[in-house]
Every structure is written in structure tokens, then in C-alpha cells.
Fold this protein.
Amino acid sequence: MTQDHSSPISIHSGGFNLAREVVANQENSAWPMPEGVILASASRRSAALIIDMTLLSAVLIVITRGRIVNVWNPDLLLSLGFHYWIAMVIILTGSTWLYFRLTGVVFSRSLGQRMFSLAIVAEDGSEMTSAMWDQRSRGKLLFLIPLFNIYHAAYEIQRIRQRHTHQSNLDRNIRSIVVISNSLPPALRRHLR
């Protein structure tokens, strides 16, 4: 006796399977994120940047006895004190670059990121190189330009939220990721301080 009727349950070996495609794409992707690593959210990263900029500004205000605020005084641009304004711009730019560079090299994160348990690592989870910290520090200087910094911050937050890798444009350019430091495997967090 042969059974020519078809079963209500059938197994298809071909065709499109969305779940299988997503897993295959993640396994074959060129982005080697370590397993179990939790990527940092845009809100946590933003809060850390606000802490960093506030801390840096407070130190500069104390060191310059409040004169650093003249960097945002447009009257100095057209006055005889133009050289004074240039000096303040150099101090602000240099100290911002130096802050992010040194905290990155020493701690593998800024002090604000350390407060929020964030770590910056290369895409494969390894420690970032000195050249990567240089690029990252230069990228942070865009947050010093009045009015443009608001647009730039909103744009970068949008990029972080849109990408499954939670990378900003700066992260993508230097091939880094920002992660929750405790989620890194112990071997990859030895350089964190």
C-alpha cells in the first residue's frame, strides 16, 4: 500500500529563511566582535562625554583663573586682543586633545567613560594603538566648535543608535568599539585601569 497523500507538515530545505541569513551574515561578517561583549548605548556614551567636558572645563577655568571663557567672546576677534583669543583657542584645543589622548593611553578610556564602566577597544577586542588614540583625540575636537558641536553630537548619537555595532563615525574610521568594560573577556580587559 502506497501513501500518495501529502503530509500537512513539510520540511523545506531551500528557500529564504531570515533567521538563518542573519546568523550566517553575523558569522561571515568582517567585524570580529568578541562573544558576550555588551556594546555601550548612546545615552551612556553621551553622559560620559558630558562628564569629560565638564571636568576638563573646570580644570581649565581654575588653571587660567577663568580666562578660558574668553574663547567664546566674539568681541576679541575684532579687537586688539586678537592674539589673546588665539592663545586661549590653542590652550583649549591642546588641552582637550591631550586629555583624551593621555587618558586613552593610560586608562584605555577617559575618566567619564571610566565612571560609566565603558572601555574603548579595537573592533576585535584588543587594546587600541597609539595611532588610534591620536585619531580619536583629534575627532573629539569637533565638540569644541560652538553650534556645530550640537549638530555633530546629534548626528553621532543617531549613527550609534542606527548601527548594530553601536559605532559612531569616529569609531568606524578608526575601527574601534565602545563596550561595557565588565563584559570583555578577562584576557581582553587586562589593559583597562
Summary: The helical segments are 18-28, 42-63, 82-107, 111-115, 130-140, 148-162, 169-174. The two ends are 75 Å apart (CA to CA).
